[in-house]
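Worked example 2:
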Amino acid sequence: MKSFFKSFFASLLAIFTFFLILFLFFFAVASALMEEEKTELAKKSVLVIDLSKSFDDKQKEDPFAEITGKSDDVMPSLSTTIQLINAAKSDSSINGIYLRSATNVNGYATSNELRNALISFKQSKKFIIAYGDYITQKAYYVANVSDKIYCHPKGLVEWQGMSVEYMFFKNLIDKLEIKPQIFYAGKFKSATEPFRESQMTEANKVQTTVWLNDLYDDLISTTSLSRRINADTLKAYANNYEIANTEKALDVHLIDGLKYDDEVKSEIRKKLAITDGKKINFISLSQYKKVADLKISFSSDKIAVVVAEGEIVYGKGNSDQVSSDEYLTLLRKLRNDNNIKGIVLRVNSPGGSSLASEIIWREIELIKNQGKPVVVSMGDVAASGGYYISCNANTIFADSNTITGSIGVFSIVPDVSTFMKNKLGVTFDRVKTGEFADAPSVTRPMNDFEKNIMQSQVERVYMDFKNRVAAGRNKTIEYVDSIAQGRVWTGSRAKQLGLVDKIGGLQEAIAEVVKLARVNEYRIKTYPESKSFIDQILNQYPTDLTETSLKKELGMELYSMMKRIQQLKTGKGEIQTRIPFEFSIH
């Protein structure tokens, strides 16, 4: 009887869950349909772009957004956002753009793509007004294209140069008595530094100084051009920390005025020629996406945009990763689809598993061999494994501020035996059929023979990596080795070195693949395709919710530290092509 009731209530719970999901599904569909019916774009609308929102390459989805009334929080992808800005340029109902410019959570390459779209928008003679209670330096990088930049009278305009901060765990793991047995190839391969050093090595300081100054010079030159201020003068303001208050920022013309929010809104009303006090029809990007004319083609010929965003992992991954299983299946499907005439691989990845990178590289090679052009478009980061999967494309585009290169390899096998014994009181014993049957093990130290084997494996993968780059970029191994060694480059320097072909964004990459494929009528199809409503709820949503909660509770720095320690804890010698991008640019 007890077993009966247990089965009965389990079945009842399953039925209840099923109907709850079914109800939520139909409610979401009905809400979406109602939203589409009632959403109309009024005349004299102002498009709102909030830089504190993340413009990712992969479209983020929230299955409960319509139900919870938070659909405006689900931002369009970067590509869609640029299309929306371009549509607003010729949309008679859009009179201007209101740029919320307090903080900017996006990378410098993403910010530059947004910035270029806004510059194009200005050709319409419509206004762009930027405002922030305070304005960070990265937000200012985008905001400086605006007709007017306003800051709260008691706010702050950040202008003090750039700095990079790395987090090192060596002292922590020393205290925990964890021994990170480290193997790497490439003198600049700094991904292992946080576990073997307590500060930056000289090689890492050299490369970081170069690429950071590249980003800084771009900030200075774009600001100088937009605000008509001498570049050396701008550097002097930063070096001397002269912009210590908003009055000084106004005095030197970094901004155009000190205004409260209501005063900025009054100015917008004047530009719209509406009476003071009348509500301004601000429209978010999410709202505009529902009504904008994005000129969708219905041609059977398609250009596939494959978004490879996140860490590259072997096997199955989650929605924030580039997994070898998913991308192998996806790329093979596109290769065999006769309607797919060309592929743009949008890479925004710090790398990861070397084996997963090789698997994806192979599929790119097969697509090319079948006669379909492949063009890579690099986002904020396309380094190490991210460069591995890019190097054999027909053409590689990068933003001038893209972080790329990092052609190097490493592996970490943590020895946690002392930690387990001294801190937790746990010991291990084993029976083996041979001396190396358990190698590599995290519960005992490696001997010299095992270390030599591991180092030779790392060096072999490094040689394979360099060979892939040499063949893909039509360079000699000796030349590739001279610019490899794990060194990080900006997109502009990568172009000079031949690692990248052209400077440009996703739209330029699409134009290139269209030219190579020799198609006239085509439509863009983005992959991976959106998950179904049920799949999002059962699989993606719980994971995304957990990640979001952790980031909120811990903060990004502690969350990043937790992830790095987790990588060390779970690592067991998998060879990695990864860049150390858990850092902050200030």
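Confidence is low (pLDDT under 50) at residues 30-38. Residues 265 and 577 are 49 Å apart (CA to CA).
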